[in-house]
Amino acid sequence: MQDDPLRFGANYTPAQGWFHHWLDFDLDEVRADLDAIAALGLDHVRVFPLWPVFQPNRTLIRPRAVEQLVALADAAAERGLDVNVDGLQGHLSSFDFLPAWTRTWHRRNIFTDPEVVAGQEEYLRTLAAALADRPNFLGMTVGNEINQFSGAPHPDPDRISPAQAARWLERMLAACERGAPGRLHVHAEYDAVWYRDDHPFTPAQAAGLGAATAVHSWVFDGTAQRHGASGTATEHHAAYLIELSKAWAPDPHRPVWLQEAGAPAPLIGPEQAARFTEATVVNALDCPDLWGVTWWCSHDVSRDLADFPELEYGLGLLTNDRRTKPAGAAIARIAAQWRGRAHRPAPRSTALVVDVGGAERAPGRSVCAPGGAFFDAWTALTAQGVRPAVVLAERAGDPAHLAARGITEVLHVRDVV
Predict the structure, then answer these.
(1) Cut 0.85: pTM above it
(2) Which sequence spans correspond to the domains of the chain?
(3) Would strands 95-96 and 91-92 be described as parallel, antiparallel, or unpaired?
(4) Which of 77, 146, 214, 332 might form a disulfide with 136, Cβ 3.0–4.6 angstroms?
(5) Fold of the domain built from segment(s) 7-338
(6) What are phi and psi of 80, to 5 degrees?
(7) Which InterPro entries does the entry mention (predicted)?
């Protein structure tokens, strides 16, 4: 893994119709989008079938929709792009996409109801199996930030315990593996998994289940509000989450995928987007064991579509008419610099100890959130020029663990001034 070239890609948001394009699938439009992405020098896309469109009934997975997904993957291959597929959408850009057989009159917990879970398993297995023979198929992501359905601040959550979350993840990942053995199957949560004390999806699950740890870095979580567009914490937020995730990883060299990062307005203004993008990626590249970076997103959301939060409209590397934006040019430059090169940054030899009240459940993980004592101490060290790793309190005295990660100095929050 350490000698594999870094991967650079984009989360594919179709230029026309956003993810509603599955309802009026136009392969020529998809090809034009993929041409523009490939022209940036990127090597992969993450794609998002809409769950209710693909599985409108628990026992109906639409063959035509699956064929269209395969056609998209084949079009990507023609342009030198690998494909990761998110299965359970789930949640995208403030909108929920759950099939009718899980809501209202058929209201059932999507994480624990036996029939719903069996339907999800078959859906994920079917998508994975349809792509299993495609060389450019990277693997499945179980769903996009589906953990947001499990508790606050969702207005109608399907509440579960950490043990139930773990069982659900294990079953979904196993279904992906049955469909396409040996691929890079992962799960992906938004940052409540790292920051919210009572959240049922835990850091141990994020860093221990699946073939890699997926990190989603969004600075509208309080980071940019506190530190500004060019603050140390803001420009290093993705690197912080990468290093934080590694504290829980059972394998000291488990790959970490920066699967989402974006430049959200107005906290990151249009004139600041290129700088922020470059700083975020360059700082992430200073983290050992990084698998790659997949920027959110490929194309802007069209202003013809209503009711999105304002920040969602301008996140693309490309405009709706497929012109490269300054942030897209920044990603293209970095991808060109790294093409074919192995990623071997120096170990982060100084580690900051994080104590979350127990590694397994992490009941005190809010210290890691923006404004938390650990977050602020890590930021202060970074501003001083230190490259801090993160080590769990439970592992801080384990010489073998420290040596495996190249850690030679251990600091506590109280040591940071």
Answers:
(1) yes
(2) 7-338, 350-415
(3) antiparallel
(4) 77
(5) TIM Barrel (3.20.20)
(6) 75, 25
(7) GH
